[in-house]
Amino acid sequence: MTTAQQISTILEALVQVADDAFVVCDKDGITRFVNPAVKALFGYEPQELLGKPISILIPTELQNRHTAHMEAFRDGPIAAKQMSEREPISVLCKGGGERPVRASIQKMQVDGEWVLAAVVRDALVDTEARRRLQELADTEPLTGILNRRGFLRVATEKIARARGRDHPMSVAVLDLDHLKKINDTHGHAVGDAVITRIARVITKCIREADAAGRLGGDEFVILFDGAGVEIAERACERIRDELRDSSIRLGDAIVEGITLSGGISGIVGTDQNIDAALARADSLMYSAKQMGRNTVHTTA
Questions:
Q1: How far is CA 158 from CA 161, 170, 280, in A?
Q2: I need a labelling partner for 291 at 20 to 30 A (CA). Which of 7, 34, 75, 169 fits?
């Protein structure tokens, strides 16, 4: 069985190699222990912090508030606290630069003396990791554009920001004509190549402010941010023109004259989210399919 002393030794070894900074202060805020990770996070060698007030890591304009919070925590009943629950806090690095961090702090008695122990993590790394996970969750793997979930999230955010302003928006639903025929004739690999080509052309023909996604199968959607139906229609015609004039070669298979059917609807003031406009655009797309395909129907 592992003894308490052995566990202590193991934990001490882990602290020495951890990416997070470990800082221990006495009740007066004087630094008594730091691990090597403080170098990467704060720019200080460990020996430069030992015996110094922890306040040297606090930006000048935040020091009074930091002191008040630390005293309240030290003298209060709570033993552990997340110092960055809502948003990262700033620390002052060697040389004067600031860095956003997240910190957890614990108070405890050691040999009858109160100490404050903190684990400090680089919030930039934390934020980037969360951003990458969000990106992976929102991205359609075949084409690299937004999936249904990601598109709806982005569209909801854009519509919410535009609410109450004179800011036109519209949504287009575009559906590949004859995907089943392409798959049956040439195989699904060629069908996937066609889908990927459509995504690339859509991305090329829309603006940075717009958002494009693949709803599933052969159906794509575009949110035109700051553009009404007329501008959206012109963009969709550019997409259709480029696809019609392109060809895809994969092995012995050649697919030429790719066509789309689509519907475009404006987003009106009574639309609380993307759903109603998306339904209108989807209905117009089916109307275009029924009337011979290879066209885009619109409404205000």
A1: 5, 11, 19
A2: 169
**Cα 84 to chain center, whole Å?**
20
Nearest CA to 172 among 235, 293, 243, 265? 265
Burial of 199 (C-beta count, 10 Å sphere; 0-12/13-18/19+) = buried
**CA–CA distance, 262 with 219 (Å, rounded to integer):** 9
Hey, is 131 helix, strand or coil? helix
Rg of the chain over all Cα atoms, to the nearest angstrom: 29
DSSP label of 60: G
User: How far, in Å, are 93, 275, 297 from residue 281 at the CA level?
Assistant: 53, 10, 8
**In DSSP terms, which residues pair with 256 in a beta bridge?**
247
AA identity, residue 260: L
What is the tens place of the pLDDT at every residue in 26-51? 988 999 999 999 999 999 999 999 99
* C-alpha closest to that of 278 among 293, 291, 268, 290: 268
- Whether the CB-CB separation of 227 and 265 falls below 8 Å is answered with no
Euclidean distance between CA atoms 158 and 89, whole angstroms: 28
pTM: 0.64
Residue found under tokens 């339904």:
279
Q: Which residue has the tokens 């025929």?
A: 181
Distance from C-alpha of 37 to C-alpha of 39, rounded to nearest angstrom = 5
For residue range 68-122, list pLDDT tens digits in order: 888 888 888 888 887 766 678 889 999 888 888 888 899 888 888 888 999 998 8
